[in-house]
Amino acid sequence: MRFPVVLFDLDGTLVDSGAIILSSFKHATQTVLRRDFPDDYILEAVGGSNLTAQMERLDPDRVDELIAAYRQHNEPLHDELLPCRGILDVLDVLRVEGRELGIVTAKRRQTLALAFDAVPELGEFDVVVTSDDTELGKPHAEPILRALELLERSPAEAAYVGDSTFDVRAGNAAGVFTVAVGWGNIHPRERVEAESPDAFVQSPRELLDVL
């Protein structure tokens, strides 16, 4: 077994949440700021650090209002959340192989719970690290290193799978094997590949060939 530990990002990697996230950001900016931002500008920051940092980028003086409007719109939409196509089968295979699986996400734990409630088929994970658990978020290495610390594993034993530039940069900084994925529809492939992941896969099934 090449990597006994496989850690995953959540949005755009395990769950197909890009449209929900974009809709929630647009609701927040239209409601609070009375303006629209280009979709690409909004999505470029998705997956990095935490929601506060993402809202500071839009308007540093109205962060709390933006977050409140975002969450008011976003949380009910979790009822529509679906897993990324094909990922559940791959998770099943990895578990049967005896790998330890984890989630490292920029979401807070309360929001992650909504995702698990909506998609219970994701199953159990051996470790979960959210933005509540570390001082620094992606693209810093700390969240991934925290997950490995909890598992008592080394970076050489682990792979990190994600769809964003933040995921690849965090994985590279942590010294794990980084796998960028192309099915999330949040981040352009060329932008993610520019961060030099160790592998790029277009479908969940391809993960089994590189892990």
Number of domains: 2
Structural class, please? Answer: alpha/beta
The main sheet comes to: 6 strands, parallel
How is the CATH topology of the largest domain named? Rossmann fold
CATH superfamily of the largest domain: HAD superfamily/HAD-like
The radius of gyration is: 16 Å
Second-tier CATH architecture of the largest domain: 3-Layer(aba) Sandwich
Q: How many separate helices? A: 10
The proportion of strand residues reads 5-15%
CATH class of the largest domain: Alpha Beta
| Distance linking N and C termini | 8 Å
Strand arrangement in the largest pleated sheet: 3-2-1-4-5-6
What is the secondary structure topology, with strand pairs?
Elements: E1 5-8, H1 18-33, H2 39-44, H3 51-58, H4 63-77, H5 87-96, E2 100-104, H6 109-118, E3 127-129, H7 142-151, E4 158-162, H8 165-174, E5 177-181, H9 189-193, E6 199-201, H10 204-210
Parallel strand pairs: 1-2, 1-4, 2-3, 4-5, 5-6
Please summarize what this structure is.
The protein is of the alpha/beta class. The chain is 46% helix and 12% strand. It has helices at residues 18-33, 39-44, 51-58, 63-77, 87-96, 109-118, 142-151, 165-174, 189-193, 204-210; strands spanning 5-8, 100-104, 127-129, 158-162, 177-181, 199-201.
